[in-house]
Amino acid sequence: MSRVYICSCFGVTEQQVKKHAADGACTPRQIASACKAGTDCGSCVRRIQALLGRGACSRGELVEKGEPTRAALDEAA
Q1: d(CA 67, CA 52)
Q2: Cβ distance 37 to 7 under 8 Å?
Q3: pLDDT number for residue 14
Q4: 4, 30, 64, 75: which has the highest count of C-beta atoms within 10 A?
Q5: Cα dihedral: 46, 23, 12, 55 (round 10)
Q6: Cα–Cα dist 61/57, whole Å
Q7: Any idea where the BFD-like [2Fe-2S]-binding domain is (predicted)?
Q8: Is residue 12 scored above 70 in pLDDT?
Q9: 3-class SS letters over 10-61
């Protein structure tokens, strides 16, 4: 069984990212909270996004999980 590494900085595999997604993580930020992938050099963030797919979570689910909305981010800036 070969391991496909998504994040070289922290040794996170594709299988680990998929497991976190199955457990409810649906944004790169939530994956980062779960396993640190994407928090160092950032080169894996696009691969994480591709694994998660577009629209993996509805906007309502993101708000329930505490993810800031685009409007909230714009207000904070």
Answers
A1: 16
A2: yes
A3: 94
A4: 30
A5: 0
A6: 6
A7: 5-53
A8: yes
A9: CCEEHHHHHHHHHCCCCCHHHHHHHHCCCCCCCCCHHHHHHHHCCCCCCHHH
Distance CA 20, CA 28 (A): 11
Write out the two tokens for 60: 């309502």
Tokens describing residue 33: 């909270």
| pLDDT at residue 74 is higher than 80 | no
pLDDT at residue 8, rounded to an integer: 96
HSE-CB for 57 with a 13 A CA cutoff: 22
Tokens of 20: 């976190």
For the chain, the residue count is: 77
52 alpha carbon, distance to own chain's centre: 7
Residue 55: is it exposed, middle or buried by C-beta count within 10 angstroms (0-12/13-18/19+)?
A: exposed
